[in-house]
Write a sequence for this structure.
């Protein structure tokens, strides 16, 4: 990665170009992908398919992976892509209707793409994590998309096991002081050392994100997965009780939760694996983790360890997730420890 540019302008004059080539082009790729996800929101449920692990996949997941792989291939031809979806899943599904719709969607962006091109682009996501690679969850929160809830397009650049750039395309998230000021939906971007930013979809302004200053655990606003099957709800509730917050926790899909904490609108996020052998996928965590850190917060696993993105496709050296505004982190880890020993 090139040396990061130094800011010469005031914060409110920042553009994506000031965040470096990788961030700027990743934001463009994600923005292009959001055009497609928004197009299929109303039809996604009818085209949803079930993967071997029982999780759903839609035409949006395949189309976004194809489009982002295509863009990365143009902009960073030497870079590896490690993405959630697998071209063989699309082939195995064998549904002509689904395949045709994916082709149709990708052609909204690149009219000359052929079905073979699209399968090849999706297949590029099967790269192995190395010294420098991108990781992509084309639709993080597919169940949210199907339900009309939150979902994000999540893209991150990892170099030497450290997340350097993270981009979260959030078509349905309101950030800032009211929707009228910042519009509906936007793209959150973080570059290590250069902060976390929100770029509204309704105008080009960039707003710096920073975590809340809540330091009283009793006032902590806690976020958790909407899908209770994504974790151990009993352990989660025990930890929240031990933290002593009075506010009920807020369910939300995807790394939209990280954006909400990075923007100061919630303070804590916890994830307890549903069983001990489950480790988080890197594409579900990388962009969100950098966003939190660059907004001034902290991200560790449930034992207080830094997330180690050098372990492969999954965070095999970590267990679960603890995210906070930083001020509440010690109290959060203590609450987890106390509730674990109950
Ligand atoms: P969230 O809405 O925070 O639970 O995150 C959504 C992500 O959880 C999806 O993108 C999936 O990759 C991941 N996921 C799906 N099923 C599970 C599961 N059973 N346990 C943990 N994570 C899961
Ligand atoms: Mg996912």
């Amino acid at each position: 990665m090139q040396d990061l540019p130094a800011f010469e302008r005031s914060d409110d004059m920042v553009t994506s170009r000031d965040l470096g080539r990788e961030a700027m082009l990743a934001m463009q790729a994600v923005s292009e992908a959001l055009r497609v996800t928004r197009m299929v929101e109303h039809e996604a449920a009818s085209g949803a398919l079930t993967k071997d692990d029982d999780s759903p996949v839609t035409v949006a997941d395949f189309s976004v992976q194809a489009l982002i792989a295509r863009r990365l291939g143009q902009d960073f031809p030497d870079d590896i892509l490690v993405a959630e979806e697998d071209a063989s899943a699309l082939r195995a599904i064998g549904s002509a209707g689904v395949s045709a719709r994916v082709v149709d969607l990708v052609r909204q962006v690149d009219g000359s793409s052929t079905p073979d091109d699209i399968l090849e682009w999706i297949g590029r996501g099967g790269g192995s994590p190395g010294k420098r690679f991108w990781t992509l969850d084309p639709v993080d929160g597919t169940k949210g998309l199907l339900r009309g809830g939150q979902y994000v397009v999540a893209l991150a650049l990892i170099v030497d096991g450290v997340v350097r750039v993270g981009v979260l395309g959030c078509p349905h998230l309101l950030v800032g002081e009211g929707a009228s000021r910042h519009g509906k939906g936007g793209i959150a971007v973080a570059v290590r050392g250069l902060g976390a930013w929100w770029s509204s979809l309704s105008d080009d302004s960039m707003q710096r994100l920073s975590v809340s200053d809540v330091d009283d655990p009793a006032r902590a606003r806690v976020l958790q997965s909407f899908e209770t099957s994504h974790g151990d709800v009993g352990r989660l509730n025990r930890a929240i009780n031990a933290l002593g917050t009075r506010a009920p926790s807020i369910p939300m899909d995807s790394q939209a939760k990280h954006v909400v904490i990075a923007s100061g609108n919630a303070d804590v996020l916890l994830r307890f694996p549903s069983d001990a052998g489950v480790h988080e996928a890197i594409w579900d965590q990388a962009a969100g983790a950098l966003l939190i850190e660059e907004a001034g917060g902290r991200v560790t696993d449930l034992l207080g360890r830094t997330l180690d993105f050098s372990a492969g496709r999954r965070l095999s050296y970590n267990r679960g997730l603890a995210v906070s505004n930083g001020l509440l982190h010690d109290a959060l880890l203590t609450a987890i420890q106390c509730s674990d020993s109950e």
Remarks:
- Residues 55, 137, 140-141, 225-227, 229-230, 253-254, 274, 278, 281, 284 surround adenosine monophosphate (ligand 1) (CB under 6 Å).
- Confidence is low (pLDDT under 50) at residues 2-9, 178-182.
- The chain has two domains: 11-208, 217-341.
- DSSP finds eleven helices and 14 strands in the chain.
